[in-house]
Amino acid sequence: MHFFKSIDFWVQAGLILLTGAAFIMDDVSVLNPGATILAFAVWQILSLLVNVVAGPQPWKMKNWRKYHLLGIGIVVLLIIVAALQSDASRTGDKDDKYSMAGLGTAIFALIPAILISLFYVLITYKEWQRIKK
Questions:
Q1: Residue 16: its pLDDT value, please?
Q2: Are residues 68 and 122 in the same domain?
Q3: Which domain holds residue 123?
Q4: Residue 103 burial (CB count, 10 A)
Q5: Shared-domain flag, residues 65 and 90
Q6: Are 46 and 70 members of one domain?
Q7: Per-residue DSSP letters for the chain?
Q8: pLDDT band, very low/low/confident/very high, at 87 (cuts 50, 70, 90)
Q9: Which of 32, 82, 101, 116 qualifies as a FRET site for 131, CA 20 to 30 Å off?
Q10: Domain end: 16, 33, 56, which one?
Q11: pTM of the model
């Protein structure tokens, strides 16, 4: 598991740097920010699954992981609320085809999603440090 934790942390850190570079370069033909964000999300999901399958370990930060799962639940709830909002909740022009119901809620859900993702990187780093000892 030590080997996986090492890879896990460095891949997450690398994907954060790649995402930052993609936004700075602003050239989708070279590095697509959407693809790097998707890769980051997929890697974190795989990491979560590996940690669930590994079961309880003495180096795992159980309380931090509980807060992380609570945060994921809040983000998923916000996304569900955004998907269920009706056309009556539109704030813009009713005839504008780009005025989507729930878009404001979905964008608002991005803030905790980003914070929860970064919190998971911190959890991974702390657990990696604990497992090395």
A1: 94
A2: yes
A3: 61-127
A4: 16
A5: yes
A6: no
A7: -HHHHHHHHHHHHHHHHHHHHHHHH--TTT--HHHHHHHHHHHHHHHHHHHHHH---TTS-HHHHHHHHHHHHHHHHHHHHHHH--GGG--S-TT-TT--TTHHHHHHHHHHHHHHHHHHHHHHHHHHHHHH-
A8: low
A9: 116
A10: 56
A11: 0.79
